[in-house]
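Feature request, filed as a ticket because there's no other form

It would be nice if the structure record came with a short human-readable summary line next to the tokens. Right now we just get the raw output. Example of a typical job, pasted below so the devs can see what we mean:
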Amino acid sequence: MNVRCTYCRQSFNLSPEFIVELVGKADEARQKNAVLDCINCRKKIKVSVQLMRRYVPRAAPAEAEE
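Raw output as currently delivered:
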């Protein structure tokens, strides 16, 4: 997932593992937004949890047992 800072316009990517971790923490706290630090200017950025759920990797289908 690509995120852009609203202050300095720096763009950076979030790994799927990091997104899963953020969505899990936000669900536990019942939050609608996750807060990240910009890698360039270190200011706080809000990212929608609903948007991040689109980028959560889906579980692989279980193989049929023979």
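Something like this underneath would help us a lot:
Residues 38 and 44 are 6 Å apart (CA to CA).
Residues 2-53 form one domain.
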